[in-house]
Amino acid sequence: MNKFKLFIENFLVYGLGGIISKAIPLIMIPLITMIMPDTSYFGISDLSDTIVSFGCAIAIMGMVDAMYRMFFEKEDVHYKQTVCSTTMIFTMITSLVVFVLMIVFRGPISDLFFQDRQYAYVVIFSAAATLVGSNTSVISAPTRMQNKRKIFLVTNTLAPLLSYGIAIPLLLNGYYIIALPLATVISSFVMGITFFSLNHTWFRVSLFDKKLLKQLLVIALPLLPNFLIYWVFNSCDKVMITNFMGTGATGIYSVGSKLGHASQLIYTAFAGGWQYFSFATMKEDDQVGSNSRIFEYLGVISFIATAFVCALSYPLFKLLFGEEYLAGYTVAPYLFLAPLLQMLFQVGANQFLVIKKTWPNLFILSSGAVLNLIINLFLIPVLGIEGAALATLAGYIFTDIICVIVLCKMKLMVMPGRFMMASIIMAAFMVAWRFLFSDNWLIGVGIAVLVSGCMVLLYRGDVMALLRKIKNRKKE
Q: Which pLDDT belongs to residue 278?
């Protein structure tokens, strides 16, 4: 199959499934915040998700990515089943250990995340969600590895609908703290059972292979710190805001981040198709060139989308949320761009995974995470929640720059000057937006259109080539 066609098909189909699963929660945020009587309730619920994301990273230990890599190593079905089975048994053990530890230490965990031990019972729900979610991640993987796109689309639509179908009645009955965490546990459990019924032939206890486990761990273990560092990037700021400003400020920041993370619709679309595409084409002759062009194109799309989010952030918050959440409009654009920069890093860093050298990811991500934490410590006391958002964005910018430099030196990436120019234009736009017209959407949209025009001019040759392809396809 044509490489471009393979990428686009997976981007669209897996992306649509991922977009639906992210879009439904995004649509529900105004209703959820309307039902909750105080911003702190949303902050507590979001901090519960933060605990789950940390627990899952520890429990999975990078094994899902390692499973993807090894699954495509050979065409032998028995070998593929052995990969899946070995990964599943290992993850079941590690997730159970993490679950028990979270229950035993629920008091200290509650102190750390909520600044109050009275919420220790929320940690119990988070522990259950970690146990179920970690195993569901492995159980569902064969669906995507076999490229069963329709199943993926349906399940990703049903999961969030089920979750909010459980949460909203609980919220209406006054269970503001446990509604969302409990709904997460139940919906994850139902989806786990569903995927197991679909993929059970890939998992057999008798196929557990110690030798293969060692090979998986060689790939997975260097990735574990990466996932923990991603957690620092995406979640640690909420914990620090809670420590500096309280759960009410965390609630406002969380709403801003949820709206900002609408970019995860793009990121999820990318991730859904990328993982299959990257390993299916890793042995192509022009793999470096293809990977570099995908990095560029996704970067430019990200810049254009972010420019319009900057312009429309203020009126959207005025329209969708009450005055107590309005301050969140300043963080939304930064947190919209941050996941897209994470997406670009994953496109680049995939080159390390292809050559089975995942350790550079650790050092590159670590440097960005340390910078993120340092900036948080300085800016949160001064700028509040906007300081936390700026720290996250700055960490990812630094990480992407280092990654590109290293890959270019290793001749695993090619980065032309036009992308550097596009990056400079985007940086100038964001500075101008924040200081000159952050609350004037008309000026913002006009300049966003201008920025988009500049991007199109920089890539006019590629745009014209794409239009010619579309025209030729129509003639056929």
A: 52
